Amino acid sequence: MSQLKPVVTTTVKIPQALCIQCKNRLEYQVKRLDGVVEFLVNYRKGDARLKFLTDRTDIEQVKTMISNTGYDADDIEANPDAYNRLPISCKKKSDKGGHIK
Fold it and tell me: pTM here?
């Protein structure tokens, strides 16, 4: 008899993820984490839906990966080095960046 793995579904706010480049960059990185079953960025809303196996990863590891990709994730600020590597269009308006609407 196989044991069901506990799966958690949640949403993470990623306020500066507002274009297809952000979506692709984030999904590529986060889906590499062991235990992430689904990670879909909604760049129109600036958030992501996440499903993960609780015996392999947790929400904090996912937020850290988002931060290490250069984006704020809920209460965790973007890693400054990773943020500086983002294209100007994917940076915050306060840094003269911003997405074209």
Answer: 0.91
